[in-house]
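To the wet lab folks,

You asked to see what we're planning to order before we commit. Fair enough. Below is the target structure as tokens, and below that is the sequence we designed to fit it. If anything looks off to you, flag it before the synthesis order goes out.
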């Protein structure tokens, strides 16, 4: 699985942006948990992710946020 969280952190440092903040929410029963994560940079939502565990949801949110950040700086 790609490490979008690390890539996002590196790009934020490179472009002198604040580091991303991840808001985590868990729902569902223990045997079928669903994690929802929202990533913000400078209090602006950059992405959301959902997964069966925290890591998958965080990676999904970071992937969306990284794509958005790259569009903003024309590095697509």
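Sequence we intend to order:
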């Amino acid at each position: 699985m790609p490490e979008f969280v690390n890539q996002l952190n590196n790009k934020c440092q490179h472009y002198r942006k604040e580091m991303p903040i991840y808001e985590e929410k868990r729902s569902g029963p223990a045997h079928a948990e669903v994690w929802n994560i929202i990533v913000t940079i400078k209090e602006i939502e950059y992405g959301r992710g959902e997964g069966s565990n925290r890591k998958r949801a965080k990676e999904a949110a970071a992937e969306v946020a990284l794509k958005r950040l790259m569009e903003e700086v024309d590095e697509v």
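Structural context that might help your review: The chain has a mean pLDDT of 93. The two ends are 20 Å apart (CA to CA).

Thanks,
Computational group
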